[in-house]
Amino acid sequence: MSDKIFLNGMRFYGYHGALPAENEIGQVFIVDVTLAVDLAEAGESDRVEDTVHYGEVFEHVKAIMEGEPVNLLEHLAERIAKRINSHYNRVLETKVKITKENPPIPGHYDGVGIEITRVNQ
User: Fold this and answer.
1) For residue range 77-109, what is the model confidence (pLDDT) as tens digits?
2) Cα–chain-centroid distance for residue 56?
């Protein structure tokens, strides 16, 4: 399946992280989500009911990213993938990438983060 729906560069302010400074000061998190979905039916029908509404997906991601702080990006990504996969039967696979642009670690980089892919069972 090569059809995809993507939401790239979503930015959220949150207090996630394993270091105390991250929980106190917070930071911006950048989230990219890619959904493998068969888009043929929506392409023919022109009906939103025949696809996955990316506005709704954004709201699911926002609720998790701006919600209760957690230690690990891995945990956030897992929660996002599980929520999307459990809410949308049309989704075959969910890829979630979360980036911290400015974590409290010394060095020069564009960002650090994780990416997971979960198949909808």
Assistant:
1) 999 999 999 999 999 999 999 999 988 788 888
2) 12
Q: State the first-to-last Cα distance of the chain, in angstroms, to the nearest integer.
A: 16
Helical residues (DSSP H) of 1-121, grouped into ranges: 20-25, 40-45, 54-65, 73-87
Amino acid letter for position 53: H
Residues 27, 102 contacting (CB under 8 angstroms):
yes
Q: Take residue 26 and report the two structure tokens written for it.
A: 């917070």
Active centre residues (catalytic): 100
Return the SS3 of 31. strand
Task: Measure the CA angle with vertex 106, ends 104 and 23; round to 5°.
Answer: 10
In this predicted model, what pLDDT tens digit does every residue of 7-48 receive, in sequence order?
999 999 999 999 998 999 999 999 999 999 999 999 999 999
0.90 surpassed by pTM: yes
Structure tokens at 65: 């990213």
- For 83, residues 6+ apart whose C-beta sits below 8 A from its C-beta are 60, 64
Query: Rounded to an integer, what distance in angstroms lies between the CA atom of residue 37 and that of residue 93?
Result: 8
